Amino acid sequence: MYYKTIVLLSIAGRPVSTYGTQMLLRDRYAQLWHDRHGVATVPLRYCNIYGMDVAGETLCGLPGTFVRQLTADGSITVFGDGRQTRDFVHVDDVVRATIGAATTRRVGKAYTVGSGESTSVRTVARLVRDHVDPSAEIDFDEEYDGAVRDSHADISNARAWLDFEPTRSIEGCLGDRIAGVSR
After folding, report:
1. How many CA atoms lie less than 13 Å away from 48 in the CB half-sphere?
2. Cα 3–109–154 angle (5° rounding)?
3. What are the pLDDT digits (tens) for 104-158?
4. For 147, which of 17, 23, 59, 77 is 20 to 30 Å away at the CA?
């Protein structure tokens, strides 16, 4: 069953998953070390990262998973109806935000790093399929219990304090990359 609300990743305090609880604890530990010991902590909450690996050979993240499924099995499997949304952020944008975190004067606070846009899992599956094998099937399997239905990152603090502005959209980035790794 999905949780029916959109989760704003900047809101902490009431996680609905084990992962969310881990994020909250990490943020609180960082705040504690900053407040009690003066350690300049800057926890970053990365959204769904995608992009090429260091060698430039493998597409990573959910798009990479779909490419691997398609090339191995001839189809893509999506859990749930595919209409659930995620905030996908390109690895190049993540690197820029991380550099911004290393140089910010506003320490002791957590920042969410995402694109600030929601994209459905079904859209990502279709983008991959259309670039690898347009005739391939997209199969839908049972949703898993406890999944968040929709997520959308509030990146306003990262924009303000890390001088962060995402420059890559998942729709714009996937075509060339998928074509290169799927052949």
Report:
1. 21
2. 40
3. 999 988 999 999 999 999 999 999 999 889 999 999 998 877 777 888 899 999 9
4. 59
Domains of the chain with bracketed CATH:
3-182 (3.40.50.720)
Angle 33-155-56 (CA atoms, 0-180°, nearest 5)? 90
Alpha helix (H) residue ranges in the chain: 18-37, 62-73, 91-103, 121-132, 156-161, 170-182
**What is the rounded CA–CA span in Å between residue 168 and residue 166?**
6
- Maximum distance among all Cα pairs of the chain, rounded to whole angstroms: 58
Specify the 3-state DSSP secondary structure of 164: coil
DSSP 35-85: HHH------EEE-EEEEE-TTS--EESHHHHHHHHHHHHSEEEEESSS--E
Q: How many CA atoms lie within 13 A of 118 on its CB side?
A: 16
Burial (CB < 10 A; 0-12, 13-18, 19+), residue 69, is buried
SS3 7: strand
**Number of C-beta neighbours around residue 56 at 10 A:** 11
What's the distance, CA 30 to chain centroid? 21
**pLDDT tens across 54-90, in order?**
777 778 899 999 999 999 999 999 999 999 999 999 9
Q: How many residues does this entry show for the chain? A: 183
